[in-house]
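Possible regression after last week's pipeline update?

I re-ran a chain I had predicted before the update to compare outputs. Posting the input and the new output here so someone can diff against the archived version. Not blocking, just want to make sure nothing changed silently.
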Amino acid sequence: MSEQNPVMAPDDIPGIAVGSMNDTHHEEVALVNALGALLLEARNGNPDLDAIGQALDAWISHTETHFERENRLMQEYGFPPFPVHAQEHASALDNLHRIQTSWRDSQNLDELGNYVFNTWPQWFQMHVNSMDNVTAQFLSNFVD
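New output (post-update):
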């Protein structure tokens, strides 16, 4: 992967029925791609460990806000499978926080790189295609 081949291309993000959710997904992918670019630079002998930590923190902060907003909307509008979707968010955040803690403890480029380039993109596409797609179809009756 290189900056020309990001972790995930914007066209790879599945579109869903609520525009604001699509916008949030694009923002998140941009943050992950920025982190991925820093990781690639580090692999090429240019490690900026502080910048990597800051990019990771920015991504996690965005994800927390992203999930809080979706959870609030699902509750506010009575989305029936809210508990299942919210649990998926909690699990994903647990994984992100574990990666963040591990990074702070060891600054292991391989572990973080594996998560950013392999684990997260697979999870994200599956989550957007399934849970977010169904949720957005429901929420599109109330929000845009």
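Follow-up from reviewer: compared with the archived run. The chain has one domain: 10-139. Marking as no regression found.
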